[in-house]
Backbone:
């Protein structure tokens, strides 16, 4: 439930904010919500299948690791892009992003 | 398997070659040789020569479908390298790194084409996307490139978030990431599974730029350096489609009736928006971006139908579309002016280039005797066989007719208008040779589609 | 009515595998989304608004501000920080290995060795590229 709330905050943030870095943080929030939910589901399946399979539900937690690493890679690239943008126009406001519209 | 490992190693190798090799032509030759090696290794893999033996049960499954697609994608990349490798020099100073990123993207493409677990799908999509963000922004001084890259990055990672949520909800339903056991046949799916399915559907529709999730495409394709737009619009997009197809034909086949309507609506919208907006464009690069949206609409028909004809048609479509678009972009890169006026009188100054460009555009428009026609024909046939949605087929034919208009505007500018069509750089002889071979391939596929499809079965 | 709800709910809670058992989840999602939307809307409507340019100015004892408060930071810090984050987070893959080090045996060891090898490639690359050179 908490994760759903987090996820929703993330989506609302992405859709309403105008600052690239805040949008970026909201996206990270979405990813973390997913992580939380994955761990919860993993625990649920673990308890359900405990009698037949002692390792049930472990793949959910494995997935969390992968999400974290990929998120870190994304942070690196994203921040680099934002810094590059900032050096050129001295702003991180996405309202500046309208040069491509004809 | 062969191709995956070799392309990963090639990526690392290209990274090192950036400071070990001094001349740019050496870097280029290494990249070309590596690409050729990957292509050969993949074909060997198809015929049972596995160079590596690594157990991947439950994670990846290399079947005919994925290996065949890999061959097409690698062949297209090879041609892309031959045509455009020289033009990458002008983008920036990190020449070898661009190749390295492209090899990493190829790794992602292999993963997406052959995943069996949703984990691999996610990793593949990310391995494709993250280098693409960098390539889009690689022209660091150019504001348009920066902007396109930031936009692509924000929207791309947003859709990744949605996709992850979908995967998680499906995991909550099934307790596994394996797509073969995700939804059991005959079982009534829970609301969790339905929500997960829809989220995955939306995220994948975003990745293949189907309307109404297409809004990033024109801006990103327009802002990115033209060389990388060419790669992005063809091979990467095709890979996303193959992943989409694999996911929905394996995991969600039993629910086909329920999501077919959604796909039909998305397809119709994509066709409508892509074609109608393309008509009003002034810049050819932007027109090609919209045309790639409308072509995505046709490829969605395969997803809508999901039968044998659709699979064959999708392969043919991917090959025809990628080859033709790579060709058009390769010619476009040489031009100084990207508007329609820039092509005025092109045929008089460069008759050969104009002729091959005409072949590519005719193929994109779907004129008979070119590969594009048969590809479209296969798609429509598959949709008719699926039954029940005749309005969609009629609509698709109408939209194909609209698309002829904007492709012919380019041909008209090249042949029937006066002008001097400024070309920004010299056109070398090998370049013309490769373009000629490309045009020949397109006509060959248009006359004998079985030349390609035969390979799929044998 | 209350009784009816009670019975239904307990039946749902006992039987965790049906579609119906997710109805509370869906309800809660609705409430959460609704609440967030309502709060955003309410604060937007209720909050006082003063649309003047004065508000946007920096206030410092009535003296107008000049200059940029944020000094441009050297790009080196940024680069090193990002590289640190990357290398830091990759260590996450060692945790599962550390827990199962006995069970995975030599096979697991080779896999981890390969991982570290790839890692080292990246490290050599950034060294050669001069990303870690502190003094120019």
Residues:
């Amino acid at each position: 439930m908490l994760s759903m709330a987090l996820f929703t905050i993330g989506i609302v943030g992405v859709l309403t904010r105008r600052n690239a870095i805040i949008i970026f943080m909201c996206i990270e929030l979405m990813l973390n919500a997913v992580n939380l939910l994955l761990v919860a589901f993993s625990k649920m399946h673990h308890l359900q299948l405990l009698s037949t399979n002692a390792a049930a539900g472990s793949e959910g937690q494995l997935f969390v690791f992968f999400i974290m690493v990929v998120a870190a890679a994304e942070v690196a690239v994203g921040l680099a892009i934002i810094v590059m943008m900032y050096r050129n126009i001295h702003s991180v406001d996405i309202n500046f992003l309208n040069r491509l519209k004809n | 398997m062969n191709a995956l490992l070799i392309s990963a190693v090639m990526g690392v190798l290209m990274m090192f070659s950036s400071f070990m090799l001094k001349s740019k032509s050496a870097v280029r030759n290494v990249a070309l040789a590596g690409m050729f090696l990957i292509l050969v290794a993949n074909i060997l893999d198809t015929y049972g020569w596995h160079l590596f033996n690594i157990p991947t049960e439950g994670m990846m499954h290399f079947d005919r479908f994925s290996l065949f697609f890999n061959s097409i994608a690698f062949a297209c990349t090879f041609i892309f390298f031959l045509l455009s490798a020289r033009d990458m020099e002008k983008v920036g100073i990190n020449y070898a790194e661009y190749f390295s990123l492209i090899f990493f993207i190829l790794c992602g493409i292999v993963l997406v084409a052959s995943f069996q677990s949703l984990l691999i799908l996610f990793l593949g999509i990310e391995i494709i996307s993250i280098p693409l963000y960098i390539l889009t922004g690689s022209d660091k001084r150019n504001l348009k490139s920066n902007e396109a890259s930031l936009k692509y990055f924000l929207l791309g990672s947003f859709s990744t978030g949605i996709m992850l949520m979908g995967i998680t909800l499906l995991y909550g339903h099934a307790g596994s990431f394996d797509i073969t056991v995700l939804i059991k046949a005959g079982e009534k799916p829970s609301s969790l599974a339905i929500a997960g399915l829809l989220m995955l559907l939306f995220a994948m529709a975003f990745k293949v730029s189907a309307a109404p999730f297409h809004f990033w495409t024109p801006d990103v394709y327009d802002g990115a350096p033209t060389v990388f737009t060419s790669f992005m619009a063809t091979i990467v997009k095709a890979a996303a489609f193959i992943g989409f197809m694999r996911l929905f034909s394996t995991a969600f086949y039993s629910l086909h009736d329920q999501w077919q309507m959604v796909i039909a609506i998305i397809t119709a919208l994509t066709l409508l928006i892509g074609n109608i907006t393309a008509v009003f464009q002034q810049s050819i690069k932007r027109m090609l971006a919209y045309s790639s949206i409308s072509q995505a609409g046709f490829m969605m028909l395969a997803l809508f139908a999901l039968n044998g004809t659709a699979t064959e048609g999708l392969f043919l479509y991917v090959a025809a579309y990628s080859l033709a678009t790579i060709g058009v972009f390769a010619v476009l890169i040489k031009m100084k002016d990207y508007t329609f006026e820039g092509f005025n009188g092109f045929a008089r100054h460069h008759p050969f280039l104009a002729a091959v460009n005409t072949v590519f555009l005719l193929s994109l428009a779907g004129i008979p005797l070119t590969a594009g026609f048969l590809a479209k024909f296969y798609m429509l046939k598959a949709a008719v066989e699926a039954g029940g949605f005749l309005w969609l087929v009629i609509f698709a034919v109408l939209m194909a007719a609209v698309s002829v208009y904007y492709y012919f505007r380019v041909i008209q500018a090249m042949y029937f208008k006066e002008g001097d069509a400024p070309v920004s750089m010299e056109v070398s002889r090998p370049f013309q040779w490769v373009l000629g071979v490309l045009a020949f391939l397109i006509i060959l596929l248009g006359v004998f589609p079985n030349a390609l499809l035969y390979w799929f079965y044998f | 009515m209350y009784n009816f709800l009670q019975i239904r709910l307990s039946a749902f809670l006992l039987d965790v595998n049906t579609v119906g058992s997710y109805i509370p989840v869906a309800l809660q999602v609705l409430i959460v989304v609704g609440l967030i939307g309502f709060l955003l809307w309410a604060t937007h409507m209720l909050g006082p608004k003063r649309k003047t340019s004065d508000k946007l100015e920096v206030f410092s004892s009535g003296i107008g501000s000049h200059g940029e408060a944020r000094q441009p930071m050297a790009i080196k810090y940024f680069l090193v920080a990002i590289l640190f984050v990357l290398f830091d987070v990759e260590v996450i893959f060692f945790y599962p290995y550390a827990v199962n080090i006995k069970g995975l045996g030599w096979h697991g060891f080779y896999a981890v060795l390969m991982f570290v090898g790839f890692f080292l490639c990246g490290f050599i690359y950034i060294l050669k590229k001069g990303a870690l050179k502190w003094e120019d």
